[in-house]
Amino acid sequence: MTVRDAMHVGVVSCDPSTSVRDAVRLMNEKRLRSLVVLDFDCGLAGIISEMDIVAARLVHEGGKPWDQMTVGEIMTNRVLTVTPDMSLQEAARILVNHRIHRVVVADPDDLCKPIGILSLGDIMRYLERVESGEQSQAQPEAASETKPSARPKRSTKSKRTTKRASATRKKTARKSATRA
Fold this sequence. Notes:
Layout (H helix, E strand, L loop, with lengths): L2 H4 L1 E2 L3 E2 L5 H11 L3 E5 L5 E6 H9 L12 H4 L6 E2 L5 H10 L4 E6 L2 E10 H12 L27 H21 L1
Parallel strand pairs: 2-3, 5-6
Antiparallel strand pairs: 1-7, 3-4, 6-7
């Protein structure tokens, strides 16, 4: 099992001068939790995640308003990378030991060139596919500039709401049965 088996191929990116507001808009539009930040020198400059944005909005009170900040001001610039041929176990160990949710997958010949993302969720989905007997060769849909994330939409109904609706239907059915 290698990183290549579980990773999302392709990245959605922005540059350090992108406004945080535009980054939020892009993340929401593509249904992503992070963007890879690319510059013109090395390529990989950092990563901006939901955590960085929430911290900028809530924690940095009294400073510059979050919507006037650039990605370069709030991004995480110490980015850990893995390669596609690295074992999935080794990549998972990096995520857990550094208490991070995702790493950038980089070209082994040029670690400044991102080619994908590997997240804890990607690893969990891959392991589920393997354990359920599905073909392990199937890769998640690429998160590219033209395709939205492959994450399924979350249900807006909670379990409690569903249980209440079910209980209401049962009561209605009982009342109808006693009247007949």
